[in-house]
Amino acid sequence: MSHLTYFTESYPPYNYRDNYQLTGIAVDLLDAAVSKFETEFDPSQIQLVPWARGYKLTKIGKDTVLFSMTRTAYRESTFEWVGPISATRIVLFASKSRQLKITQQSQLKQYNIGVIRDDIGEQSLLALGVNKDQIHRAHNARYLVQMLELKRIDLWAYDELVGRWLIKNSGLNADDFEVVYTLKDSQLYYAFSKDSDPELRQKLQQGIDQVKSTVQANGLTEYENIVSKYR
């Protein structure tokens, strides 16, 4: 696995930097899975980059891995997939004070919506027919939290768990925000470039499966113990 180039973004609690060190569910799972068939894995070789950059480089790069990526039909043939890391729910957040009620897709065309460029939120909205001029693209999710707080965007499209984590850790009152619409339920994966070694991907998949099935002394699986550190 050492010859691969790894990209990730700040997407807590799955992958993020804490005290200058990369950590999170996906980072720990990768480390644990690789250790099943290699003696060492150095998380410092993972590069933290804006999502759009990592997405582009993994599409065109050689022996490249990007995580955590939502697996969708649109992306299916662009990458090779190992996982899953976790379930994911992509939602639209709004300020409660706006009292927005969204019950059908057609209503989305009334609002300005913040997204991360090339993220699943943007791709889901475009697939639903939302006009590009309604979509406010950014490279940083914390910036979009601020935009939502200041009411410079009406809605924010993001993973529900990650969005709640960012709101809480931005010093805002989580009770001031609510989920008003669900765009997609899916799974997060490690996305490999198309030229990557199938045998290596198979080994990593077997390692992940082993982490998820190995019961430890406390009665939980190794995977469940990883997740519990971040919940």
The ordered string of helix (H) and strand (E) elements is EEEHEHEEEHEHEHEHH
Q: Gyration radius, to the nearest Å?
A: 18 Å
Major beta-sheet overview: 8 strands, mixed
Q: What percentage of the residues does DSSP assign to strands (E)?
A: 25-35%
Q: Overall pLDDT, averaged?
A: 95
Largest sheet: spatial strand order: 4-1-5-10-6-9-7-8
Distance between the termini: 28 Å
Percent of residues in helices comes to: 25-40%
What shape does the CA trace take? globular
The tally of helices reads 7
What's the total number of strands? 10
Structural class: alpha/beta
Low-confidence stretches: none
Compact summary:
By secondary structure, this protein is α/β, with parallel strands linked by helices.
What does this structure look like?
An eight-stranded mixed β-sheet has the order 4-1-5-10-6-9-7-8, with helices on both faces. Strands 2-3 form a two-stranded antiparallel sheet. The chain has seven helices and ten strands. The model has no long low-confidence stretch (mean pLDDT 95). It is an alpha/beta fold. A hairpin with a 2-residue loop joins strand 2 and strand 3.
